[in-house]
What does this fold into?
Amino acid sequence: MDRPIRVLVAKPGLDGHDRGAKVIARAFRDAGMEVIYTGLRQTPEQIVEAAIQEDVDVVALSILSGAHNTLLPKVVQLLKEKGAGDKLVVGGGVIPPDDIPYLKSQGIAEIFTPGTPTSESIEFIKSHVRVEA
Amino acid sequence: MDIKKGIIDGDRIALAKLITMAEDGKKEAMDIIKELYHRTGNAYLIGITGPPGVGKSTLTAKLARAYSGLGKKIGIIACDPTSPYTGGAILGDRIRMQELFTDPNIFIRSMGSRGHLGGLSRGTRVAVRIMDIFGMDYIFIETVGVGQSEVEIADTADTTIMVLAPGLGDDIQAMKAGIMEIGDIFVVNKADREGAEKTAREIDTMLDFNEKSTWRPKVIMTVAQDNKGINDVLHAIEEHMKYIKDSGIFASKRKEHIKEEILELATQNIMSEIMTGLSKEELLGIVDKVAKREIDPYSASIDIIKPIKGGIQK
It folds into this structure.
């Protein structure tokens, strides 16, 4: 049986701009994924607990506050600590190109900056998540 | 990872994984649940249903919080609709439950309906059993936003709470058959809005006509977002629980639910047996014949189950 990929779309940190997160959530839905949308201003602890309880394949983090170098690695680290390091973590938002290599070195699989076609992030997820039939 | 051991030891990752596997219909998951089924039956099941946007998730969150404060372990299963076209879904009930995410007493699982009609998700019942095995004291089952006839929750929950809000329709709506008949407790949420008292009164009047049951459902006004009326709902739940337990309804209701569950599982088993014995091409061939009026759909439906009539071998 084919099962849908489960994705948590979350907004860590304090910025209140969720349009990007909503656009990507909708695009994932239309690509046949189950999208758990948790809303604004989440702490890494909240995101990680939600990811564990929902047993998602992917954690997609949208951030525009500038705190990405702190919050994104924190999510990856907490997932590992709690025994859920098997999840694919991706990020999106206004993230300077210079920060991307650091984030990748911290375990963020990919960063999608503004202007990335949604099809590109969908393709990335589909090719990196192995959903056992 | 040893999922069975994890479930017994209270490991939340094991709980999450077992629900995923069961929802996907994996045999390994079903084997574990079969082995541990004797541990079920202890959790009290509360259904939260009502039309879209009345505040089911917010109310569920506040009730769960209140029970957690009493030291109870709470499972929440929140259902949202799956797209019949893409198979995708937006599961957004957690937005209203943020304050619960890091509560160690509470475990929330969102589920897409995955083609299931009736207000629940395909995997809801099995997820309930798993949370029950895990040792939850109360399990809240929040339905998708329902219309007028999705009453499946009443075949699953011990206490069903029908959540409504002001401005959804006149008193004739309250008289219609279907969802208005399944509430053990009625909540008029968003009671700070105009018309709340009128809505509550109309429901109350409608309930006066119900002479069949000795339980008279309460109508409670709440503003869930502001935590208003939550304790009243909590008391009503406890009161209803006591009523059904003292009157023996609890036991007969649970038997009725088990009957429904067995029949539903049997239907699923027969369907999957039919689909494995029938290739896409064969099915399309039959469809073609019916479309050309060479045969009729009634006979065709008998034809496709013929191979399994001798009994399902599995």
Summary: Chain A has a mean pLDDT of 92.
